[in-house]
Amino acid sequence: MTHKVRAFLLFLLCWNAEAQTPQTQLPRVMLQAGMYQIDAQVAATPEQRAIGLMYRQDMPQHEGMLFVFEEPQVQCFWMKNTLMALTAAFIADDGTIVNLADMKPQTTNSHCSEKPVRYVLEMKQGWFAQKNIKKSFVLKSSLFKTTSVKATSPP
User: Fold this and answer.
1) What is the reported pTM?
2) Burial of 112 (0-12, 13-18, 19+ CB in 10 A)
3) Which of 52, 81, 131, 137 is the most buried (most CB within 10 A)?
4) What CA–CA distances, in Å, run from 109 to 13, 45, 125, 145?
């Protein structure tokens, strides 16, 4: 076996072992869902988003992962190598939940946003339902753009 082939095989073994390590040290942001706080890891790079919550055995109920994309577009998620049942909340720029999707572990079914979004929040399945948080609910965070209505005088 040549030196190059051995080096390539070693690279593949190391890469595969690293790829199976869960992400637990990403930056965090606090989200407000009514009276509930969510401690969310932020997956903002393509690499962080690709791994997401893969390989995690468990996660505290109040924690989640917020996927942040550069531009709003229809986002689709699947659960390959994800060991926990999750619910994805597809979120508009202003924090409004566009739709929710329950996702089964270790499946490759696509779960997509109903319209273009920049944010997707994954929580343990059941968290949103237990808190009665549904489509059109508005989450609060410093990341979301707030719209304010300015009063204007008639001409």
Assistant:
1) 0.82
2) middle
3) 52
4) 28, 23, 16, 31
